[in-house]
Specification:
The structure holds two protein chains of two kinds. Chain A is an all-beta fold. Chain A contains no helices and eleven strands. In chain B, a hairpin with a 2-residue loop joins strand 6 and strand 7. Helices cover 0% and strands 57% of the residues of chain B. By secondary structure, chain B is mainly β. In chain B, strands 2, 4, 5, 9, 10 and 11 form a six-stranded mixed beta sheet that branches. A five-stranded antiparallel beta sheet of chain B has the order 1-3-8-7-6, with no helix packed on it. Classes of the chains: A mainly beta, B mainly beta. Chains A and B meet through strand 5 and strand 10 of A and strand 4, strand 5 and strand 10 of B.
């Protein structure tokens, strides 16, 4: 089976812009979780989608949003970008809800905000 | 609230020695504890996990132990090799069915 894929792999944006990241899960996986990874902070949970519904949400501002399509592919959107949004954004897919199922990560999208 | 802490933040070991990383969690209802390995520039990869109905699980040179009473779990790597050098993340499942991750441990294996 193909692994989790993310596009684009790298992005450079300026403050105030918005960005959309995409994640394609492993075939058959219905859950997609999104994480922000910054040096020294580990993986911070953004949100999880399962069967096109947001099931969990982390402590991020409303500028961070997402959605999931009927084929389980997911997108994450960040509006009004800030310098502090520069990070590696990882998505992970799992068969069931992510908390109790094995999660498999994508390669990430490296976002740089200037 | 959800809190997972890892100790130590950095660990250096001589090749062939053992490495132990410990994580503590705060929610006594947590019942699933995975460990991820992230090599430089690569994605985190699941290396082993344990559920709360067992106290220990082994997979070749890697083992995880769980102490539910003390609310901590540990990753043990025996006979370390240079390719074990990476950042290791622990995580715990919380009641709202999400994973909370620790901040990671940098393990350096010295040849």
């Amino acid at each position: 089976k193909a692994g989790v894929t993310q596009t684009p792999r790298y992005l450079i944006k300026t403050r105030g812009q918005q960005v959309t990241l995409s994640c394609s899960p492993i075939s058959g996986h219905r859950s997609v979780s999104w994480y922000q990874q910054t040096p020294g902070q580990g993986l911070q949970f953004l949100f999880e989608y399962f069967s096109e519904t947001q099931r969990n949400k982390g402590n991020f501002p409303g500028r961070f949003s997402g959605r999931q399509f009927s084929n389980s592919r997911s997108e994450m959107n960040v509006s009004t970008l800030e310098l502090g949004d520069s990070a590696l954004y990882l998505c992970a897919s799992s068969l069931g809800l992510g908390g109790g199922s094995e999660q498999y990560f994508g390669p990430g999208t490296r976002l740089t905000v200037t | 609230g959800e809190n997972v802490e890892q100790h130590p933040s950095t660990l250096s070991v001589q090749e062939g020695d053992s490495a132990v990383i410990k994580c503590t969690y705060s929610d006594s209802a947590s019942n699933y504890f995975p460990w991820y390995k992230q090599e430089l520039g690569k994605r985190p990869q699941l290396i082993i996990d344990i559920r709360s109905n067992v106290g220990e699980k082994k997979d070749q040179r890697i083992a995880v132990t769980l102490n539910k009473t003390a609310k901590h779990f540990s990753l043990h790597i025996t006979e370390t090799q240079p390719e074990d050098s990476a950042v290791y993340f622990c995580a715990a499942r919380y009641g709202n069915n999400r994973l909370a991750f620790g901040k990671g441990n940098q393990v350096v294996v010295i040849p």
